[in-house]
Amino acid sequence: MNTDEEYRRAVLEPARAAGDQPPEDLRVRYMLREPLEPAAVAAAVKQVRQCWRRARGQLKYRRLVDRLEAEHRELAAVFAAAERGDVRPLAERLRGGRERDERRREAVRARLADAAGALRMVTPAEVEAIARAAGVPADEGRALAAVERIDVREPDRLPPTAPYAAYPKVRESLDVLGRRHLPDFLFGERLTGPMRVLDGFAAAGVTLDAAAVEAAVAAWARRSRDTSTTHAGTILAGLRSDADPSELVRYDIVERLRERARQRASERALLRFAMEDLGIEPGDARRLVFAIVRESGGGGGVAARLRALLDAGEVYAAAEMADGGLDNDAPDEAAVLAAEARRRVEAAVRLREQAAAETDPDRAWRLLADALRLVGDLPGAAELQRRLPPEPVPAVRADVDVTAGGTTVRLFFEPSPSTAGDVRYHVVRRRDRPPRGAADGEPLVGGRDERPPVNAPLYYAVTAVRGEAASAPVVTGPVVVRPEPADVAVAAGDGVVTGRWRLPAEAAGVRVTRDGHRVPATRDGFSEIVPNEATHHYLIAAVYLDADGREVVTPGVRRSAAPSAPPDPVFELAAAPDPADPDALFVRFDPPGHGTVELVLTHEPPPWPRSALLPVAELRGVVRRLPSDPAPGGLRVRPGSAGWIMAVTVAGGFAAIGAHHRHVHLPPPGRVVADRRGGHVHLGFDWPGDAAEVEVAFRVGRSGDGRPVTRRAVTRAAYDTQGGLRLPVPEDEPVEVTVAAVGTAGDGRLTGPAVSARVAARTVVAYELVRGGPPWRRSLTVRLSAGRAARIGRLELVLREGRVMPHRAGDGETVQVWESVPVPGEVTVDLPRVAGPYWLRCFADDDVIELGDPPVRSLRVAK
Amino acid sequence: MAVYGIDLGTTYSCIASIDDVGRPAVLRNLEGTDTTPSVVYFESGDNVVVGATAKDTAVLDPGNVVSLIKRDMGRDVTRRIHGIDFKPEELSAFILLKLATDARTSAGEEARDVVITVPAYFGAAERDATHKAGRIAGLNVIDIVSEPIAAAITYGVLNPDADRTILVYDLGGGTFDTTVIALRGGHIEVVCTDGDHELGGADWDARIVEFLAERFLAEHPGASDPLDDPQTEQQLRRDAEDAKKSLTTRTVHTVRVMHDGRVAAVELTREKLEDLTRDLLDRTIEITGRTLATAAEKGVHDYDDLVLVGGSTKMPVVAARLETELGLRARLQDPDLAVAKGAALYAFEETYRRLVREGAAERAEEMANRAGLSAEQQRQIAGRTIRTVASHAFGIVVVDRETGEESVAHLVHANDELPAARSEDFFTVFDDQDSADVRVMEQAGSVESPDLLDNNEIAAGDIRIPAGKRAGWPIEVTFQLDASGLLNVAAVEKEKGERLDLKIDVGGMSEEEVERSRTALSRVQVS
């Protein structure tokens, strides 16, 4: 692991986790080692600051690194002193660092203790926030909480509203009867020990269930009737309602604690009230108080609770709370919220009553929707709304669809005129009689009957449903489904037609007719001898028996077949190139007895034996048909690429495999250019077609002098990368080069037509410029020499004034021209009278002679 | 012999030369674009890829890709890649090498003589590092020139007849600076300059990246932070750059943030982008205001043009905000390429002037003729002066003999005209002192301060003192900042007037290290 990674893992990541708080301990921050050595400190600081700079490239570290740099500026003096050799300020600072770290941890512990209070409980979010604020990682915060024996947990979710709507009356009656709470009312003296209410009701010696409630009912029934029994009746009605008794008990306890909390009781007082007055088990009591204190965001009081209820849409509960427990001296905000809750409940109740009186269910539905929008928990409104049926659909139509997958019945209906609410549609099917409601019959999904019973009268009904209420069903029918024979296939052979199908089990039989005449057939198929080369039309229909036993014939399925004799294969085949077109071939064969001949191309040897007969469609997928022109004795084709040319004979949907010919496409290379470049000949050409490689053969010397031919195989890649070919050839020898495309056919190599190019020999003639003669008649001699005797066609001496060398004869003025100069030999001319600087140079106008310049100093005249 | 101008940018670089008709032309790279991303990818220790391919690879292999190198120039920060420590100078050299190699392919001749541009606000260490980067790349660095001056030359060439005062607002990929320049009779005079080289388009991108990551986390609270994954961060940077560019013309752009196998489509509007980056733009406005105040102290009150340079000025909010704040109509003139073109012009003119100065008038004329310049134009170039100013204050650390306290004595002040030479006498502290430390400091903040902490040490060296001298023996130290902002320090012994042996290394690399790097890097394949 390198330093950067190590530093990121050990320092930057924990610091990020602690809210971009750099570690207080400078030993960690700067990777300092004890004992402090000035040189080591300077090196470590430099290395760490480089790490910062590199880490800053990642956005997640940017803020942290900026903070580290800012703090480093404050520490610069300490490190500067250390670098100079005085580590005392740094050591002092390090001691301070440990103390600061300890102080920071101490601060976290104190804050945690404050937050936990008498309950010794905090939420995970609170621990995290405290740790972050103090610059300590969250894990350490949790560890410190554990050390302090502080319980870190989420507060229990307490019921916000009463499980029984008339709970306030129950509470009133409990107070009148002088009972501490519901369990006290139910069990009285039997309730001896502390009770648990949070995870279901539990107390020593008693069980809260229907039997206990019934026992209480029986006990009160025995008592003489007075106002007490009325109050007890109210309480027992609550306990016998839909609400779970243990939930009702929990709500009763919670509500009593909430009431105390609203009255500004301290945590300690609440805990004492829960344990001593209400008799709750200490663990449950702590959890209950913890949850109630955290409920309104840290003791926000009535206003916060009202706001929470209003925000959650529980306006009715808010109004109830306001009616039940709001003091006259409640805060202004709470009073405003309470007034709002009451107003909304009043308006909603008015709407609900209006809806109850309304005869149009749609209008009533909308009124209730408005009421529920105002007060989400308005008692009775949602139930009433759910029971308002929509209008039935206007009409239903059923169509029988026959598809490849089978027969289906599709139902079409207009939507219900009711627009209010979410109207859904139930579709049911019944045999023999119309359905009477949404549940009378087999339900169908999506308005389609994928598997309708065959040959039976069917009735379909559509019901519009909104909430729990359904409209009257709208019925269509009877529909009788009689499917046609399935998977009908009629195949033609040589003078015979066969048919095959699947008949539904319910069908009584099948009726096959050809051109109006009955054809004998079994339940599964038929076979009939017919004349070849004519198309025959068949109608295949299923026959069913109706309820009265009469035959009913379906419209039937039509199929046609044209029997034909099999094609004859081509037994032999000959191919030859077309002299007029190098890309075309003449393919000759004897015409077969029956069928049309086509030529096809395959890239692999044909997999079928000759004379094999296969369906044309199967053949077409594998081979390419070659467009062809008729030619004497066969066809003319342009294969375009190499492969196997095969003759197939096609007749009546079948193809007979014939003979084939291996074709290799090797055109001659085009535009062959050979240039002599000094000791090499450069060869270029257009690459021939799809040849894998070319063969280059070159022979040095004149033809017939028996010199060997050098052959070289060149791949396309080699040719392309080198931009042509360079053949080493002596400069003074002619050379003949031939190029031919090479391809492989099976295991053998094939060579295409070759193209040749000749490059003539070249003789290098060296020359010298020799100045001579007396000063008044200076002369210039051109002395020519060569490896062998030659004759230069035309030699030109050129002079160019200035500092630039002439590169062509036209670059300067001609001093003298000699024709047919023998080599070796020399020619002389008067030295031109020109003031310098100037250049002299000879040029030869000859195809086979190349002049070699003497050293530049003899060509250039400086003054 | 052609000369080239190189704009070595934080995010993109560019090379230009003078064409046959005397106009500056940008040479495209092998990928066919005018600008090359300043990103270096190390496929292996000896195969280095620079440019668009490197930038594409950043998403796949972020550990071996280096970008924003310019921000580290002049700092002693190395990057360890494939086990080799690379200095910022060496990393920049790879970019220069790529530009020069591609220019050779495109122009057909060796690109050797170059002028490299730096932000006006670059200090001596950064300039020196840039100079060394050029040398490591095997280039002959004719000069280092400030980007706004290069832009002003391009501007001056396009508007030759007018005497004008212009404010150059240069917001590049990684650096920002503002410069007030006066063009008078063909001469160019820098009045003052200011800037921040940790402020540029890349910071705009970073804000977008943070926003995208934040929105992704809001949509997928269970997923890990996209910024914890370097590959996702690189992808987000690319997306952010695309979004920023797209929002110069469009008003809404949607980015698909993909991380941890989840996707969030984040919509970014132009207004949101402007809100996210308002403080960055405010910082540029504040620095511009400071520059205008300095210019006012120097007697410049009226401006003819506000020239916007640098790709980031294409954001519509920049021009709009400058118009509202300064009341100047902003002129967006070839913001991506103006600096490279100006550098090419400067390289050409400077070479011409040097030839004339060295008496090689013929060669100078041949060079001018090749570029098709008239006699009048040649006269103008020969006579053109470029006066510039120091970007920061410079000084050395002095010790109070009484208290022993150290402080910085500034000899050259910010916005002093360059070239500047200041000499001051210093005295030895002890008898028989054999050497004296010279610590050259450069102002680090926006105003100068004698406190050591407010200055960066950019060079250190020592003076050898002849034996047997008593305390208080005088030495004259001369600081010279040349017109390119490069620092030279010389010391003269006062008794006999002899030059003392003074060895000063500005910046992070010594001459030997530069030479070593040049040899080592010449073996690396750069494409």
TrEMBL record, chain A:
This is SaeA fourth Fn3-like domain-containing protein. It comes from Actinomadura rayongensis. Residues 677-754 form the SaeA fourth Fn3-like domain. It comes from the Bacteria.
TrEMBL record, chain B:
Transmembrane segments: none annotated. Coiled coil: none annotated. Keywords: ATP-binding, Chaperone, Nucleotide-binding, Phosphoprotein, Stress response. Residues 220-244 are annotated as: Disordered. Pfam families: HSP70. PROSITE patterns: HSP70_1 (PS00297), HSP70_2 (PS00329), HSP70_3 (PS01036). It comes from the Bacteria. This is Hsp70 family protein. It comes from Actinomadura rayongensis.
